[in-house]
User: Fold this.
Amino acid sequence: MYNYLSGGFLAYLNRDLLLGIRNKSDLIKPLIFFLLVSVLVPLAIAPEADRLAELAPGIIWIFAVLATLLSVERLFSDDLQDGSLEQMLMSPNLLIFPILGKVTAHWLMIGLPLALLSPVIGIWLSLPTTAVLPMMLSLAIGTAVLSLIGAVGAALTLPRQGGVLIALLVMPLYMPVLIFGSATIQSAVDGQSWTAPLSILAAFLAIAIALCPLAINVSLRLAKNG
Amino acid sequence: MYFESIQQLIVMDGHGIYVWSAFSITIVVMLGLIFKPLYQAKQEFKNIQLHIKLQQVNAAAMQQKDSDAPHT
Amino acid sequence: MNLNLQWTWFHRLGSPRWFYQKTQRWLPWLSLIMLSLLALGLVWGLAFAPQDAKQGNSFRIIYVHVPASVVALAGYYLMAIAGAVGLIWRIKLSYMLMRSAAPIGAALTFVALVTGAIWGKPTWGAYWVWDARITSMLILLFLYLGVMALRHAYSSNEAADKASAILGLVGMVNVPIIYKSVDWWQTLHQPATIKFTGAPSMHPDMFMPLVVMIAGFYMFYAVTLILFTRIEILRREYRSSWVKQLVENN
Assistant:
C-alpha cells in the first residue's frame, strides 16, 4: 500500500539502501577517499594551523565534489547490467518517483555520511568551531544537489560509462554549488551571516529536485534504446 | 586615421604585439571555421559519388548473376 | 484543415532539402554582408577608433574579444533551443543545427578566452586573472566540449541527438546560474578591479566599431552554421534521391 502511495519512491529507496548495506565496500570507498585526501593536504602544503584554516572551506568542498562524482557514476550502471533498469522503465508509475528514490538513497549513503564525517576533517584542518555547523549543513544540502545533477550525468553517459566523460559533463554544472557551499563555510569563518549562501544552496536543491528527475527520465529511456 | 603613420599603427605604443596577436589568432580560427566545412563538402561529395558507383556496380553484378544462373 | 495550412511553412522549414537549396542562394549574400561588416569593423577598430585613456591601445582587443564572447554565449542558447525544438517536434534539421552549433561555439569560446588572456597581460599584468567573465567563459567552453563529447557515447545518431539536446537544455538552465554565481563569487573575493567593457559608458567613437564587429560576428556565425549544417545534411541524407541527383549533377 505504501508503495502505491509513494509511486515507487519508498520501494526504490529501500531497495537501493539494502543493496548498499549488503555491498559495503562501495559505500565506504568515497568516505575513505574523503578522509585520505584530507590527510594529504597538511602534508603537501604545511602543517600550520593558520594556512590550513584559510584553505579548509574550499578544500573540504572540492573533496566532497570529487567523492560524489566518484560514486555517482555507478548509480544506474548496475541496474542496467542486471536488467532491473528495464523493469523500472516498464513500470506503469511515473518514473520520477523511482528516480528520486534512487537518488535519495545515493545521498543517504554518500552525501549525508560525508556531512557527518566532515567535523573530523574540520578539526584536522583547524577550522574554527563556529564554522562546523554551517559546514555540515552546507554539505548536507549541497551534496543532495550534487547527487541530483550527477544522476543526470550518470544517466546520459550510461551507454559508455567510466572515463572522464561524466566528469566533463557534470563538473561545470557543479560550479555554482561549489561556490555557494564553500562560501557558506567561509562566511561562518569570517563571522558573517552564513544563512544567505546556505539558502541559495537550498534554492538550488529545490530547482534540482524539480528539474533533474525529468532529464534523468528521458536520458534513461534513451540509454536503454541507444 | 587615428595613428600618424603605418609604423605607429603596427607598434601601437608597445601594445601592438598584444593587439596584433589577438586579432591574428581570431582571424586564423575564423578562417578555419569557414574552410573546414568547405573542404569537408568536397570530401563528402566524393564519398557519395563512391557510394553511388558501388551501388551501381553491385546492381550490375546482381543482374549478371541472375542472367548467368540458368547456364550453370 | 486551416491549422494544417498554417503549419506547412513550419514543416518545410524542417526539411533538410529545403534548407540545403535555400541556403545555396543565401550564402553568397550572407558572406558578402559578413565580409563587409568584418572588414569595416576591423579597419575602424584597429586604425580609426581613438585609444582608451587608461588602457591605451591594448583596449582594441575588445573588438574581437567581446563579439566572440557575445556570439559564443548566444550560440549556446541557440544550440539548446535547437535541441529542444528537435525533442519536441522531432525535426531532424534542428538536430543537425544543434550538432553544427557545438564546434563553432566551442571555437568562438576558445577565441574569447585566448584574446581575453592576451588582453589581460597589458591590462592586469598577468595572462590569467580569475575575472568573473573569463571564468564563466571557461565553464562555457567545458559545457560545449561536454555536448561534443557526449555524442561519442551513443552508437546511433538519433539517441546521440536526443542525449545532446537534453544536456544542452540542462546547460541552458545552468548558464545563467553559473554566470550569476561566478559574478557573486568574484565580488566576494576581488572588489572592483579594472572594469572590462562597461559598454554604456564607452564613447560612441569607440562603441560604434564594436557594434559593427558584433554584427559581423553574428553574420559569421550564421554563415559557418549554415556551412556546417550543409555537411551534416549531406552526411545523414546521402541515401535520399535528391542528394544523389545533386552529386551527379555536380
Q: What stands out?
A: The radius of gyration of chain A is 18 Å. Residues 2-225 of chain A form one domain. The mean pLDDT of chain A is 89. Chain A has ten helices and no strands.
